[in-house]
Amino acid sequence: MRFVILTGLSGAGKTQTVRNLEDLGFFCVDNLPPVLIPKFAEACYQSNGNIDRIALVIDIRGGKFFDDLFESLTYLKDEGYEYEILFLEASDKVLIKRYKESRRKHPLAPEGRVVNGIETERRKLKDVRERADHIINTSKLSARELTEEINNIYGEEGQIETKLVITVLSFGFKYGIPVDSDLVFDVRFLPNPFYIPELKKYSGNDQPVRDYVLDFEGTKVFIEKLQDMLQFLIPNYKKEGKRQLIVSIGCTGGRHRSVAIANRIYEILGRNGYNVNIDHRDINEDVNRGDGKL
């Protein structure tokens, strides 16, 4: 089990770090009173492996409860529970700038100057910092660089490379473009199987429609160019820390052309080793509604 206590200065990046840890499979609990750490640790260690990566955010927001931290850490050590402390910090200048931009009050100086709150917090956290296993200064780190730091420390082998999940989504334009789309491609330039009587009743999941759509030269060229574009974009999205990519392919009703082409792109990406899902949002909409053009 990996048991991480995340702490540090307010404004140093704990919120983003928690998101990074969650993406790496950690069960995260924010602002747990330190006095409850022993009970929580016991429950986790007795979960028979159901919970094996835990991160607790313990910081100065706990007020007087924060003073119980060392007592709880001593208990963990005496009972043989292994843990590690991740401490985040930043320079006074950077922290002040972040507070001014967010317009938030410092928890230790709600009615006073931020700089005074930072000074008090540094003093209160001095002993915790000295016991930290990892210290990250976020003063000069971008969001992507902080994510890389967390991945380097806590990511398991192969986890970083496979963290991007791609969903190829077919849809019908007449039902609206999916709001979570990252990339949208319109395949209504292709002949519509809806107007072929023997194909109308089928969908792009069926071989007759699949063969009809994929046999056009325009389809082949489109798929080739789209494949080239995705091969270029995906590594760059991963480099920037993107974890989910929605590639939406639309035709009129989302039953024939978009489905066949989405399936083909899904197959290509899967063969290239990407973590990819397929979803046909509107494949049955026209059938259920008895609407016209597909």
TrEMBL record:
Keywords: ATP-binding, GTP-binding, Nucleotide-binding. ATP binds at G8, L9, S10, G11, A12, G13, K14, T15. Residues 165-283 form the RapZ C-terminal domain. GTP binds at D59, I60, R61, G62. The keyword Nucleotide-binding applies. Pfam families: PapZ_C (PF22740), RapZ-like_N (PF03668). HAMAP family: RapZ_like. This is RNase adapter RapZ. It comes from Clostridium frigoris. The gene is rapZ.
